[in-house]
Amino acid sequence: MLGHHYTHTFLETAVASVNAGCNLELSYGMRNNVFMHIPQALAMGNITLQMLRDRVRPLFYTRMRLGEFDPPAMNPYSSLDLSVVQSPEHRNLSLEAAVKSFVLLKNVRGTLPLRARDLSGQRLAVVGPFADNPRVLFGDYAPVPEPQYIYTPRRGLEMLGANVSFTAGCREPQCRRYSREELVRVVGAADVVLICLGTGVDVETEAKDRSDLSLPGHQLELLQDAVQ
């Protein structure tokens, strides 16, 4: 609310939030956050002790129902580790969920899906700043997975046994420096070209909005050069 000029201080924001029924603040990494001003608001009479109790009660009731205050031995999930989470059964389920959630906006001439049996003898080029950079593949509020479980487009295609060549064209999504010569060389020798473009949290995320939907930096130029 402070950023949108609805209030002018954290104290005003705390009062407005509590009065509106808010009982939880997301302020990761902030020592002096908004709700730290609640005691001051209480002392000034801007909020009442009963109101504060009414806000806290459902919050802690939910936390108790979730078992946050139970001994670890009572939590059935505390014994789970990566050997369970990354088990073949769970990874296959994640793969199935990913496959079933893809949306093809346009599939001219039935180009997709690419099948391993159709790639024999084919030369694939995987290009773009998102083709083989695990760090940029996850959006805002995404978990940070173990690197060995991240499959970039390049790594995934190489597992199919395809003859894959690669160039990023530009190292990061901002794409400030673009190597056209390398891209043309790789694309020109390929039968199938996959171009991996986008934004990522380096370009846009919460509190980092953009005024348009254009591809950042030289990415559009990279796409046009690959198509030509």
Automatic annotation (TrEMBL):
SUPFAM superfamilies: (Trans)glycosidases, Beta-D-glucan exohydrolase, C-terminal domain. One of its GO terms (biological process) is arabinan catabolic process. It comes from the Eukaryota. Residues 103-226 form the Glycoside hydrolase family 3 C-terminal domain. InterPro entries: BXL, GH, Glyco_hydro_3_C, Glyco_hydro_3_C_sf, Glyco_hydro_3_N_sf. It holds the Pfam family Glyco_hydro_3_C. GO terms for molecular function: alpha-L-arabinofuranosidase activity; xylan 1,4-beta-xylosidase activity. Keywords: Glycosidase, Hydrolase. The keyword Hydrolase applies. PANTHER family: FIBRONECTIN TYPE III-LIKE DOMAIN-CONTAINING PROTEIN, SUGAR HYDROLASE-RELATED. This is XYL2 arabinofuranosidase.
